[in-house]
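Budget justification, computational time. The allocation requested in the original proposal was used primarily to generate structure tokens for proteins on the priority list. As evidence of use, we reproduce two of the resulting records. The first is shown immediately below.
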Amino acid sequence: MTRQPSATLVVVAVLVAVALASPGVGAAATVVVPAAAVLPAQPPPPPPPNPGDDELERSRQSVQDRAAEVGRLTARLAELDAQAEQLQMEVAGRNEEALAARDTADAAGREDETAAARAADARTVTEAAGDAVADARAATEAAGRAVDDARTRIDAFVGDVYTHGLDLGPLGLLSRATDPQDLMDRARLTDALSEDQAAVLEQLQQARIAQANADSLARAAQEEADRRRADAEQASAAADSAVDEAVAAADAQQTRLDAVHTERTDVQSRLDAAENADAGLRAQRQRYEAWRAEQARLQAEADRRAREEAASRVAQESAPSDGPAPRRTGSAAIETVIDRAMAQLGTIYAWGGGNSRGPTRGIRDGGVADAHGDFRKVGFDCSGLMQFAFAGVGISLPRYSGNQANAGRLVPISDMRRGDMLSWAEGGRTHHIAIYLGDGKMLEAPYSGASVRVTPVRYDGLNKVTRLL
């Protein structure tokens, strides 16, 4: 762990510096630190939430599903729009047909009115013919009665003359005859009256024929008008029915269109919610990544300061001789071991690299280390870092981490303290080793591709705590 001055020490140091800089205060002056100036260190803020990759993938998939559904509904909406437009065109066409049928009906109505007028005229002619017939019949009847009356008188006169001789009685027609010729002339007049009666009868017959013809024409005109009106009304009714059907179909299509509109709006809102949630998760991830980057920057800065401070303290110690350093113990030796290890913060990991004198070129392992090019790097692996750290206090460690773990006194994990070595094993074989710094932190050379670092203790797989000092 990096040994950084506490907040209390910083405050005290500042107050001392201020006091020493004040006029009249000598190097031996006593500085009184107010109790209020000693503030407890504030814990670091917790990290922002970091959604997992699975959660982000599910959110992304949800957005894609909603987007696909919106696309499908949009296509369906366009299809229904086209169908609705087609139906509206059909409605307009049916309306035109209805207008044409109504025009036909109106024309038939006008023709019916004309036919009715012609029928009325025919009826008028018929009525006039009837009047003429009646007049002719009356004239015929009057002429008949006159002829009959004349004939009766002639017959009576002839009988009387034959029986009684000539009688100039009251018969006006014959009694005024001056001679037989006159009498014959008057008889011929009677015949003329009969002929007149026949002529009147002929006129009556012609009047009846004219009346029958007028009646026939009137009936034909009325029947044609009625037929045209019926055809027009049937066509108009058919057109109206077609319009009603087209309007009903358009209404039904519009209902389906409205339903798809509603469904699309619902899916769009769900898509928006999914996108917002996804954006929220990604924003959380971005904030977390930014926080982690900031923490990495702060850690790198702290590591740099700790490395420089540790290197400075190591350099201040007496230079080692050509032989191994003298064996040392105690808390000062623990700090020397930790300072030597902390001075290597940021040094690249190289499998097989490092010894008691410092970092060295790595070696081939035929696997992961070779894939990372460790054999071309100058650095430490976990056991090489332990060799270098403990060599500063005269402790020579074997190269293999498993042997290092057994090089000192084993203590319970619950009893670990600053400066102890921590080792991990799998299947009874040790595969990693580090130095415990205290406060739940350790210093290690972790794996290929990483660098020497300070990190929280990993208790999973931790099986030995080895104390050398």
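The second record produced under the same allocation is shown here.
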Amino acid sequence: MAKWTAKHEAPEPLEGPVVATVTGGTILWFALFVVQLPFYGWFADRGQLWWVWTCAAGGFLGLIGIWYVRGREAALKRHAAAAAQAGQSEQGSGGAAA
């Protein structure tokens, strides 16, 4: 059996409102946790407490995710600004030499 190789290049990753998406998901996980708290006894009686704690874990992991994607977005903006700055200084010095 021959090894499979791609016949075309992979598409560029989609960029979108990543911080808003992760923040919305985190809020959703915490909301689900809070909604389930009044039914804690019901979940405990049926051995389904993992539903409650999964929502809590999702919320707390979402906080880490928010911290991460905010840092990533700031780094991408710094990189774009540095590239633009380098492009402008290159244009300015290139025009003087010609």
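A brief technical remark on that second record: The radius of gyration is 24 Å.
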